[in-house]
Automatic annotation (TrEMBL):
Protein name per its UniProtKB record: Pumilio homology domain family member 3
Region (Disordered): 1-21
SMART domains, per the entry: Pumilio (SM00025)
GO biological process: nuclear-transcribed mRNA catabolic process, deadenylation-dependent decay
Keyword RNA-binding: yes
Top-level taxon in the UniProt lineage: Eukaryota
Cell location: Cytoplasm
Pfam families tied to this protein: PUF
PANTHER family the record matches: MATERNAL PROTEIN PUMILIO (PTHR12537:SF12), RNA BINDING PROTEIN PUMILIO-RELATED (PTHR12537)
Annotated Pumilio repeat ranges: 45-80, 81-117, 118-153, 189-224, 225-260, 261-296, 297-339
Length: 381
């Protein structure tokens, strides 16, 4: 009854998740299941109809819930109805993909391997598909290393396409997180493309996963390339996140290099929508001496005699950096910074109400600092 004779090659009675498809007729059993709320349904009641139920919103949810506590025999029956002939269709289905994910979670290792076998030869296509990419990610978590390596090989030549794809990038991230680094040769394809990836909405995430999970020998060429573009990346809507990640999680050498690029640029960068976030992160993560120098720069008047503090207090982004500097400054430097801000607060209060929101936050922070209380204010803009 549920052979592959629909116009799209999907079993009858199953949605493909594409809105333009006409909704196939439901079997009497599925219709009864959807309307009969008084009956206590069990998995055995729908054997022979697992594929159709998996492709239905309510049927899929029922199977997912039951799989968590199903017996081995029940799981075997469900598995055999889906694998191998109906697995690929369900993997790409709006509701069916969740059933397949549950099979990876609760099936035996033999079942997981057999299920993943049905995906081999289709991993790239599935990785680029909205629902398939979720199943590929789940599979990577539960299959054995050799099969993981097989998945990697399928996207190897197309990894940059996957990285830049709304679905595929999640698969690449999962592979970096879960697969042994020595099997991830595709990382070599990122060399020479670090700036492009850093400034891409998905590429920036993939690079961060590389820095988080891969060993020094694989990340060093990428980091060395990254350092060439630090100043530009700080000002990029996506690149700034990569720089912030290195500032927070990188080694001493890489963090110091990043911070050094801010020297002499604190005021300009603080006033920038994206770079201001990097300034805040640098103030928090820098070593004590580097932090002291950055704050010193904020306090030192420019050649025209104008204090950066005044400019920062008025600026919609820089005022947050100034607040962060207040919260991390220590000892005499903190007292000096407070001493330079207080007179400006009074002056600005007298002549303008335009900055009242910024000023209230700064005043509260000064009050806490003066009392020696720990700062709990979130200042990120």
């Amino acid at each position: 009854m549920y052979g592959l004779n629909s116009p799209h090659g999907f079993p009858q009675g199953m949605r493909t998740g594409r809105r333009e498809d006409s909704v196939p007729l439901r079997s009497p059993l599925l219709e009864d299941f959807r309307t009969n709320k008084t009956r206590k349904w069990e998995l055995r009641d729908i054997f022979g109809y697992i594929v159709e139920f998996s492709g239905d919103q309510h049927g899929s949810r029922f199977i997912q819930q039951k799989l968590e506590s199903a017996t081995s025999d029940e799981k075997e029956i469900i598995f055999n109805e889906i694998v191998p002939h109906n697995a690929l269709q369900l993997i790409q289905d709006v509701f069916g993909n969740y059933v397949i994910q549950k099979l990876f979670e609760y099936g035996t290792q033999i079942q997981k391997t057999a299920l993943a076998n049905t995906m081999e030869g289709h991993v790239l296509q599935l990785s680029l598909q909205m629902y398939g990419c979720r199943v590929v990610q789940k599979a990577v978590e539960y299959i054995l290393p050799d099969q993981q390596a097989s998945f990697v090989r399928e996207i190897d030549a197309h990894v940059l396409k996957c990285v830049k794809d709304a679905n595929g990038n999640h698969v690449v991230q999962k592979l970096i997180e879960r697969v042994s680094p020595d099997r991830l040769e595709f990382v070599n394809a990122f060399r020479g493309n670090v700036y492009e990836l850093s400034t891409h909405p998905y590429g920036c995430r993939v690079l961060q996963r590389c820095f988080e999970h891969l060993p020094e020998e694989q990340t060093r060429p990428l980091l060395d390339e990254l350092h060439k573009y630090t100043t530009n990346l700080m000002q990029d809507q996506f690149g700034n996140y990569v720089v912030q990640f290195v500032l927070e999680h990188g080694n001493v050498h890489d963090r110091s290099l990043m911070v050094s690029k801010l020297r002499g640029q604190m005021l300009n960068m603080s006033r920038h929508k994206f770079a201001s976030n990097v300034c805040e992160k640098a103030l928090v993560t820098a070593d004590p001496e580097s932090r002291r120098l950055l704050i010193e720069e904020i306090m030192s008047p420019k050649q025209d005699g104008v204090s950066p503090i005044v400019t920062m207090m008025k600026d919609q982004f820089a005022n947050y950096v100034l607040q962060r500097a207040l919260s991390v400054a220590e000892g005499e430097q903190r007292e000096l910074l407070i001493g330079k801000i207080r007179p400006q607060l009074t002056s600005m209060r007298r002549y303008s109400s335009a900055y009242s929101k910024h000023l209230i936050s700064i005043e509260r922070l000064i009050e806490k600092c003066s009392q020696g209380l720990p700062d709990t204010t979130t200042t990120t803009g």
